[in-house]
Amino acid sequence: MKKISTVIDTVLTVAALFLLCSVIAGYFTRKTSVIILSSLTAAVALAFFTGRLAEKRKAPKVKKRKLGELMNKFLFSPPEYAQAFTVRAISNRAIPSEKNGFVFAGKTAFSVRLVPEKIGAATLAERYSAAAKLGAKKLVILSAYGAETDAAETASLLSEPTAEIWDFEKVYDFFSKLGCAPTETMKLEPKKRKFGELAAGALKKQNARKFLFSAIVLLLWARFVPYSGLYVIIASISVVLAAFCRFRPYERKRKVKRK
Prior knowledge:
This protein is an alpha/beta fold and 259 residues long.
């Protein structure tokens, strides 16, 4: 389905760009062949470069989703899974040893806390004192969501041993540098949204400008393309939707009913 929707989106984008380029080219020449060839070339080129730009903009979201799926495998597995994985990763560069829940590599103590919560000051204090007793020079807590504000501030002030709290992005980079990047994922099923939720999302206040901009563009195009009445109708609908997003009358009705 995603491939089909991508193809349809690409075709529609090229068609829209072709129409726009044809209108622009029509100002400079009246030869149909020149207009078609130049507009088609420009439309394909613009579609290609806009597609590449869209991919670059989506890259951080794709990476975040991938990291989330990798992290879920640790979060929803027994604690032994993350512990064993850390031992296996460190063994690629050093000879690890396990003491009191830590994975030691030299004088660095790694505490594996890949749980669905941030590391608080209490956890930091308990792990820090335990690492100090074992003679560690550095404490690294591997976490899923990083540290609470107070824990992060406290960790930066500790010196004997020093302490760091890594979120999963740093944990993933650490495993990758050791040549043991996680590959097992757990994908959570997306929540099925009802029609009302979809409509509410489309009619958000910040979308008013988008609807208004679309209306202006359609009205400008209506002067140069056939079936201009259709464009005017769609532009009018966009203006109504922009006003609906801006003033949100259904929210006022809800407030009145609550009173």
